[in-house]
Amino acid sequence: MFAHSTDGLRAVFRRNQGVRVRSTIVATIIVALAMLAGAAIMLFMLDRHQDSQMYKSTGTRSYEIAHQINEGGMNSIDSELLRPTTGIDVIQIVDNNGVVLFSSPGGDTAAISDITPGWWNTERVDGVELPGRSGTYCGQITGAQFDGVDYNVITAVSTQPYFSGLRGTATILAIEFPIVIVIAGAGIYYFVGRALGPVEKITRQVSAITSSDLSRRVPVPSTDDELTTLAVTMNDMLDRLEQSRTSQLQFVGDASHELRSPLTTLVGILDLADDTDSPIDVDTVRSILLPEAQRMSNMVADLLLLARADERGIPLTVDDVDLDDIVGAEVTRLRSLGLAKVVADVTPIRVIGDPDKLSRAIRNLTDNAAHHASSTITLEMEQDADESVAIIRVIDDGPGVPGDVRDKIFDRFYRHDADRGHHQAGSGLGLPIAAEIARAHGGTITVSDGPDGGACFTMTISTGLEDAQSAIPSLVDPSLIDQAVTRTSNGANRVGSERNIDSLT
C-alpha cells in the first residue's frame, strides 16, 4: 500500500510540476547533498589537522626535554623548554614514585601518575582531566633516565580551544547552508527558465500552426546548442509535412482530374441513352464505354498499388525469374504493335523476384518508350561485374527528357508540358509504379540521354543470388526466398543457346 501511495504522489508531482520546477528541485537537492558531503569532509579534515597539531607540539617538547635529561640530568634542561607556549599548557617532570620534580605554574600535583612509558619510550594520552584544571587535555609522556633515576616528561594541551573552533566552524556552516541553498535554488530556477525560454517560444509557435497553414516555422535560437538542433529539426519536420500535404493535395487533385475524363465520357453516353430512350449499340460499348471503363479500372488499381507502396511497400510474391524471358516477351509484344522498330540485345539472367511485378515495370518503361519514340526502341540487358545486379536499358530515339525534369517524371501524374509523342498520353502513373517495383527489388530507375539522342531509362534489379533476403523487402515470406534460391541454384548451369535469344535480335 505504501508503494502504491508513493507512486501516486510521484504521478501527481510529475503532472503538476513543470520541467523548470522539477529541474530546479532536482538540481537544488544535488547541490545540497554536495554541500553536506563537502561540509562533512571539511569538518573531518579540520578535526584531523587539529588533532595532529596538538600531538605534534606536545610530542616535540616532551622529546626535547627528555633528551636533555638523558644527557645531563635535571640541571641541564634549557629553561626555555620549561615554559608553556602556544600548543602547550602543562609541563611536568615526575619520577617513578609520582613525585613532581618540576611543574609549570598551576600544576603542582602530578598530572598523570599511572602511566610510565619507560626509558626513551613515548605514550600518547587523550581526554584526560588534570588535577586543579577544568576541561580535558591531551598530550604525550616521554621516558628519560639519568644516573639510574627514571623520569617521566609530561606535556599536555587543553582540547577546549580546538573543540570550540570546530564547533564554531560547524555553527557557521549550519547558518550559511540554508542561505546558500536558497540562493542556489533561485539561481537555478532563473537560469533554467532562461534556458527553457526558446522551448516556450517553440511551443507557442507550434500550437499556432494548423493543418491549413503549414508555412509558419519555429524560431531558431542563436545559442548553437541542443535547443538550436531541436528547432532546426522541427522546422525540417514542418518542411516535410508541408511538402507531404502539398503532394497529397496535388495527388488528390490530379487523381480527380484523371478520373473525371473517363467518368465524363461514361456518364455522357449513359445520359444521352437515357434522354433519348434508346439502347447503346455494341460498337459504342466496344469502342468507347469498355475502353474508358477499363482505363478507369486500371487507374484505380494503380492508385491502390501506389497507396500500398506508401504504407508498407509493394507486396511481392517471389520466385526464381528468368528475366530475359520477360524482356523477350516484351520485345515480341512491341514488335506485334508495329509502333516502332525494336532492337534487342539480351543476356540470359536469372533473379529472385516477383515475375508479375517485374513484367509490369518493364512494360511501363517500354510503353513510355513507344509513346515517345520516333522510329526505334532498343532494349539492352546485362549484369554488372560481380553478377549481383541485373541492368535493363530501354532506349528510344525521341526528343529525350530535359535535365530539369528528369527527377519530376517519376512523380505521380506528372507529364511534361511539351508532350514528347504522337500517341495518346498515359495517366502519369506508369513510371512511378515502375520505380516503386524496382525499389522493392533492391534497385533503382534512372534516366539519361540515349547514345543517339532520345531518352535512356536504366533499371537495376538485385539478382538476389548473393543475399536474397537483404535485396528483397522484409514483407516477403523468407521461406519463399529460400525456395526460390534453391530452384535458381539448381538451374543456374543452363546454356545460353537454349534461351533462343538470337531470335530477339
From TrEMBL:
Residues of the HAMP domain: 193-246
Pfam families, per database record: HAMP, HATPase_c, HisKA
CDD domains: HAMP, HATPase, HisKA
A single GO cellular-component term on record: plasma membrane
GO molecular-function terms, A-Z: phosphorelay sensor kinase activity
Residue ranges of the TM segments: 25-46, 170-192
EC number per UniProt: 2.7.13.3
Annotated catalysed reactions: ATP + protein L-histidine = ADP + protein N-phospho-L-histidine
Gene3D superfamilies with a match to the protein in the record: 1.10.287.130, 6.10.340.10, Histidine kinase-like ATPase, C-terminal domain (3.30.565.10)
SUPFAM superfamilies (alphabetical): ATPase domain of HSP90 chaperone/DNA topoisomerase II/histidine kinase, HAMP domain-like, Homodimeric domain of signal transducing histidine kinase
InterPro entries: HAMP_dom (IPR003660), HATPase_C_sf (IPR036890), HATPase_dom (IPR003594), His_kinase_dom (IPR005467), HisK_dim/P_dom (IPR003661), HisK_dim/P_sf (IPR036097), Sig_transdc_His_kin-like_C (IPR004358), TCS_sensor_his_kinase (IPR050428)
Keywords associated with the record: Kinase, Membrane, Phosphoprotein, Transferase, Transmembrane, Transmembrane helix, Two-component regulatory system
Protein name: histidine kinase
Species assigned in the record: Williamsia limnetica
Biological classification of the source: Bacteria, Bacillati, Actinomycetota, Actinomycetes, Mycobacteriales
